[in-house]
Amino acid sequence: MNKPIILGMFDSGVGGLTVAHAIRQRMPNINLLYYGDTLHLPYGDKGPETLQAYSRTIGRYLLSRGADLLLIACNSASAYAYDAVRVIDSQKPTLDVIRPVVQHLGNTWPKGTIGVIGTRATIRSNIYTQLLHMQFPQIKVKALATPLLAPFAEEGIEDPQLRSALVAHYLKQPELQEIDALVLACTHYPLLKKEIRAQLPSHTQIVDPAEILALELQNRLPALEGQSHMECLVSEWTPAFAQAAQLMFGENLEVKQHNIHPGT
Questions:
Q1: Scanning 8, 114, 135, 144, which has its CA 20 to 30 A from the CA of 128?
Q2: CA–CA–CA angle 93, 101, 36 (5° rounding)
Q3: Residues designated as active site
Q4: How far apart are CA 156 and CA 78, in angstroms?
Q5: pLDDT tens for residues 188-212?
Q6: Within a domain: residue 37?
């Protein structure tokens, strides 16, 4: 039997749970150690140095808890802190939610027009455009910051009219017209996928990084056996996070508060 593999992953809040859920769907036997930095959400409004500091602290903690590999389940942290996290322990692989998506986009639409929506931090980094043009120079990228979507999803607001109106406000902007695919470059956004799909032309495909990351891990890791376990920690316990976690993973999932940030 293969040794159990512990995947340590983190995000600012519930968004990364969409990645964790997709991974569990494909790899039900993987052990997940999830950290939601709810004390400091949203990450999308933070500066590069702050994101790097938070990410290093969380990465070190997850490795100290026995993680065999790390996954940055946040686009903003992936954009600015990927290198800072992967050098913590060069023997343990670090994945992020951007680079596998870039490869998928290039393989699928090598001469296409790609729309990207994300937080201010992610869009300001220009990371998708830079990485795509390095490998696939014929791809055209149209990016738009959609900063209200992440906190809206984080709060779990269910009003269908509000949800549709907010999504429509962004997706009707001229920057996002005539695209072949739309990247949900924030792991919170799949929580609004139904509303996003309704606002897009039928030919425009939605690219959900959670699904791509799950496939990437499945291809990288050996077949796993035995019982899986998921531990879910947050830097500050919130009802919205606990409700979202239990909705995705079942009522038996306990969310525990454990603040690892010094001085906060």
A1: 8
A2: 60
A3: 74, 186
A4: 24
A5: 999 999 999 999 999 999 999 999 9
A6: yes
